[in-house]
Amino acid sequence: MKSPKVKSAGQVVLIPQETILPNPNQPRQRFDYDELEGLAQSIRQNGILQPITVRPGADGKFELIAGERRLRAARLVGITKVPAIVVDIDQKKSAVFSLLENLQRQDLDFFEEAQAIDRLLTEYGMSQEEVGRKLGKAQSTLSNKLRLLRLPEEMRYQLSRAGLTERHARALLSLDNDVQRERALGIMIDRHLTVAESERLIEQMRSKNDRSRCNYRGIRDVRVFINTLNHAVDAIRRAGVDADAAKSETPEYIEYVVRIPKLEQLKMPLPGGGADRTESA
Description:
There is one protein chain. 51% of the residues lie in helices and 12% in strands. It is α/β, with parallel strands linked by helices. A hairpin with a 5-residue loop joins strand 3 and strand 4. The relative contact order is 0.07.
């Protein structure tokens, strides 16, 4: 069975909704049920005012390019045929069109938007300049959005689930590592912090880290302590004790071990004792 013929490109036709397959490159990952229900109510009252966009597929099917929310809402209403514009493009162009359409319509959350931009750059070989021109965004804006993907996937999920904003996410990136970011994010979520409150919290954490680094630098040099320990071991040896010292280092710490023979092995008089007592010991 062949797809219905279209007289000219861009013509709106009615297509059975069961023949429309989802777009494998759909950048939108989450669909809010309440939003879909609201859109379904509007479609029930007014019909689908803006056609979806599809491309011809195999076996009489069509692949959705743009308009998944409208298609899902139409299915909730029970509409059997949906208005669509059929465009004859290949899969790569379909994927790019779908990403750009969602970005231009601002249908994506900020993490989905960052992922979509990243896919345009990495999978479809577009430059930042080209993406910025198509989306009407400065390259610096694109760079800031791409930085959001430095956050681990689980952290992104928590941010989205809690309804936090892009500014919340960008504030987290100013911390040094993911351990600190997890701690800050937990506080932000538990206390329902605004952006300003979150930025103050993170600034306090950064200041505390800076003070800790300054205090460590105030010690000047760990070698001062190592030399002190070496002098102490030398003093023990001058007193006739065969002390043994060993120093080792790891990326996290310096280990300094001093071994001193037990008292009965020293062959030395006990405090207040004489030579005879030492020999009998």
